[in-house]
Amino acid sequence: MARDESPGPVNRPPFAQAFPVILDDADIAAAKRGAMRWQWEAEREGNRENPRFLSSTAIQSRDEALAVAIEGAVGEVALAKLFGIPWRPNVGGDRRRPDVGHCDARTTRHLGGRLLLKPDDEMNRPHCLIVGTAPLLWFVGWIYGRDAMLPRFWRPERRSYWFPQAELLPWPVPPERFHYERKEAA
User: Fold this and answer.
1) In a domain, 172, yes or no
2) pTM of the model
3) What is d(CA 145, CA 124) in angstroms, rounded to the nearest whole number?
């Protein structure tokens, strides 16, 4: 077998502290519905400041924008599942409201991807990095916005901070850092 054909680790991020979150069909369907609502709302309002609208120079079409929205929604659903709380999509673009519990989810399909933050992201909120593609995603770690928005992580060409996986804080997140009500099964 040639060197570049070696199977190596499959679907696992390079950072050792990551652990899996497996979504079922209902989770994935909920994420798709939520992403479609986000996209419809952004287009209806012509809200070009909404990150799920065609405001990114990297996004060239409506279909690409929807794919990015679905990727983000899948990460939020995975984080909610990890916390054991229901996912409620943030329709309307209220950026003051956290994505899941009292934290924000940042999702990328790139297993070695970084946690991206925009300058207007909440400084005092935990931001969690979820990587992978449905149904298998990985919780990599988390960081407060204020600790990630440092000049050395600034990428001017993308107008965002790119925080590396190796510097994220591991799970479990201390309970006092998240203030959410856990819904008990009936």
Assistant:
1) yes
2) 0.81
3) 6
CA gap 140, 153 in Å, rounded: 18
On whether residue 160 sits in a domain, the answer given is yes
Q: How many CB atoms lie within 10 A of CB 8?
A: 7
Q: Please count the structural domains in the chain.
A: 1
For 107-142, the pLDDT digits (tens) are 999 999 999 999 999 998 899 999 999 999 999 999
| CB-count burial class (<10 Å; 0-12, 13-18, 19+) for 30 | buried
Q: Beta partners for 142?
A: 128, 169
Calculate the alpha carbon distances from 57 to 60, 64, 65, 93 in Å. Answer: 7, 11, 11, 20
By the 8 A CB rule, do 103 and 79 touch? yes
- Domain residue limits at 171: 16-176
What does DSSP say about strands 160-163 and 154-155: parallel, antiparallel, or unpaired? antiparallel
pLDDT in tens, 20-64: 999 999 999 999 999 998 888 877 776 555 554 444 546 667 788
Beta-carbon contacts of 107 under 8 Å, excluding residues fewer than 6 positions away, are: 71, 72, 74, 75, 76, 78, 129, 130, 131, 137
